[in-house]
Amino acid sequence: MRAVRALALALLLTAALSGCATTTAADDVDSAWRPGYLWQSVAGHLRMLGAARPVDEVLADPATPDEVRQRLELSRTLRDYASQHLALPDNASYRRYADLGRPAAVWNVVAAPELSLKLKTWCFPVLGCVGYRGYFDKAEAETLAAALRAQGWEVNVYGVPAYSTLGKLPGSVFADPLLNTFLRGAEVDLARLIFHELSHQVAYADGDTTFNESYATAVERIGSRQWLQSAGRSEQLGATESLDRRRAEFRTLTMGTRERLDTLYRSSASDDDKRREKARLLAELRTEYARWRDTSWGGDRAFDAWFDGVNNARLGVLAAYNAQVLAFERLFERMGRDWPRFHAEVRRLAALPKGERDAALGSLQ
Length: 365
Hints:
The chain has helices at 2-15, 35-50, 55-60, 66-85, 138-150, 187-199, 209-230, 234-266, 271-294, 304-308, 312-322, 325-334, 339-350, 354-362; strands at 53-54, 96-98, 106-112, 122-124, 128-130, 133-135, 154-160, 178-179. The chain is mostly helical. The strands form 3 sheets. A 3-stranded mixed sheet has the order 1-2-8. Strands 6-3-7 form a 3-stranded antiparallel sheet. It has a two-stranded antiparallel sheet with strand order 4-5. The longest helix is centred in the C-terminal third of the chain and has 33 residues, at 234-266. The radius of gyration is 21 Å and the shape is globular. Residues 1-27 have low confidence and may be disordered.
């Protein structure tokens, strides 16, 4: 019975947490609770856990590639740093490693109406409603996306490298493992992923994706800067700050268009007029992006595909994940840059009704 309870909890947690909400094939685009969904969620999660081995064991294996070995050694340093210096949980999470043989842990599907930025939501027992559905299998994500498009929704499918089970599952076997998807990119990216996912174990507001993701994003940014400084990696710190500035410019560019579209969609204009103005605003966004890319960003085309396919779903999910980051960064300063005090205050906010929580963070923006 304990094993059955653990599997049920795994299902519920992986259904609505950081980066991942798992479902089955798109036989019903509105339902997130079906027998097939139960099986796909549990089976996908257990396959991931079954592939995991202790990091020390992987390091001792002579077949482990040197690049993987180097990153796993770094992961041990980062994992200890997170608990010792950022007041993040000291438990079995991210002390095992699994190579999934795929480029993402899961694939998320988000959808929005043609003339609205409000994301479609799916509701789960216990954990409430979230604005995405996720799949361990990319083909199933694309199947749902096609079904949603056939109903007139604007859709975005994207891979995510990690998700969190909030540290609620018993024992080291069920603890969230490191994944091969963590190891790509710069060293600071690995730091950010570990710090971000551990943050979800500290404070979590049921059904409030914006709060949860903004908090974890603030922790990863502040924590990674502190780690780089403490490790004497000044050259990486400069590169990271440059990347953060570019991401901030990206948000400025996209959120400006998002706000104009939101105003348009809420206006009394006819649907045909809204469609025409929407097309103009999105064309203007792509033109402005190209100008930034070819001047301030030195011709970096990393965002080309995103802007080529920009739609309400893509703009909607951006707000969900970043809207309150600045408020959390300011809250950290208000708490005297004291990690335990900061986390305690975030837990207090998470326990408030959403309206009070939003008002408190809004005063910090």
